[in-house]
Amino acid sequence: MKEIWILDDDASIRFVLEKALAREKLPTRSFVQSKEVLQALRDVEPTRQPLALVSDIRMPGGSGLDLLATIKIEFPLLPVIIMTAFSDLDSAVSAFQGGAFEYLPKPFDVPRAVELIQRAISHSEREVPSERLVSSTPEMMGQAPAMQDVFRAIGRLSQSNVNVLITGESGTGKELVARALHKHSPRINGAFVAINAAAIPKDLLESELFGHERGAFTGAQAMRRGRFEQAEGGTLFLDEIGDMPLELQTRLLRVLSDGHFYRVGGTSAIKANVRVIAATHQDLERRVQQGEFREDLFHRLNVIRLRLPALRERRLDVPMLTQHFLQLSAKQLGVEVKRISQSAQELLANFSFPGNVRQLENICHWLMVMAPAQLIESKDLPPEVCGSPSPNQTAQPSIVAQSANWETSVQALTVELMQAQTPHVWSELSKRFETAMIQAALLHTGGRKVEAATMLGMGRNTMTRKIQELGLE
Q1: What pLDDT score was predicted for residue 100?
Q2: What are phi and psi of 228, to 5 degrees?
Q3: What is the distance, to the nearest Å, from the Cα of residue 226 to the centroid of all Cα atoms in its chain?
């Protein structure tokens, strides 16, 4: 039988709930820290997911509300009961806004707590996962640390109306993140309207955004509402914002500044109650420096920035995503899902995926059609994966080949420093080694410190401190 999970750093609370639920023949599993619950949720099989989670709100090592925000994104069907003190009204409100099933005030009446948990169980058993939601948001799956950062950010922004700028390479799932931000926002009942600034001719983009009046230009035979009006009360997603013409950037800035706009050919101001989420794969700071993007508009859009990791930065997720896309493709084709061998999976995991998650999805669909047997072998993978190595794969052997004797070089340098009676040889070599590593990492990431720190396995603050200590500013 599925369990009721209890999270509280107070042993007495855990004991009382465990005994009360045991009398109702309800099995339990208890945790002390929120990170243990998240890890257990990610590790357990879907058929063994808990029926409900009862969580304290204030604990060392992690807030119950932060945990709730993450659960609502990764495990939206799991009912969460938040325990909070009577005096903590703000926490209770936050719990409801964050999607809690109910909150349980402390000190609580035990029969009341059991009755509340039983209601949560009934709710859990009635809920059926939405196949449409699962199949439409594959990029939102992920256990890699880089994706967990994205999930946490979505959770923190769930009750906010601030503008968000999403950056990342093509195919990383920027629109899916925008849809998640809308879904978990107070604007959920409003429309989500998306427009790609790079896909619409420049002379039509203004009308698409702001609409037009009848007779505003040749062919305008009727009044037309633009995307801003269509998104009234909801969210407008401006994809590839970096490709927006400068003259339209000025109009967009005015809307974001005073909340009003005019249809093309119109004379009456229209109030816009819209949250704007923008996305780009371009370096907007560089475009600002080059005079191709308005600096004031950039700052209006860049209130909160979310950077989506490339798939090569989250290789841990490749096997899970591969299985998901194979199942999805099999369902679309009406055939039995194929399995993938370990060797083929390793090749996929080591591929650079210049097209990111979108490219992996296409590869999985190709495999379901083209692989001759039910077991996909390495030889069945498309040529770009198994035929020609990726840029990253070709670069690494050449570096290794040039530095094959690096241990000998370090030994020789050590002896040289010692013969020169250099003081603190260990510190000197360590400094040179750290300098070389950090410079190489920053070169590889184009100067992006956070990304370089992640790839080196160190924290952002540590990277900043090292750069200052080593004089690499």
Answers
A1: 76
A2: -65, -40
A3: 29
Long-range CB pairs of 459-464 (<8 Å, 24+ gap) are 463/438
pTM: 0.54
**pLDDT-based confidence at residue 92 (cuts at 50, 70, 90):** low
Could you tell me which residue, 114 or 106, shows the higher pLDDT?
114
Average pLDDT over residues 226-245: 92
The tokens for 29 are 């599993």
CATH code given to domain 316-391: 1.10.8.60
The model's pLDDT over 443-473, given as tens digits with 9 standing for 90+, comes to 777 677 877 887 888 877 788 888 878 777 6
Superfamily name with CATH number, domain 139-307: P-loop containing nucleotide triphosphate hydrolases (3.40.50.300)
**4-129: CATH topology:** Rossmann fold (3.40.50)
Domain boundaries 404-469, corresponding CATH code? 1.10.10.60
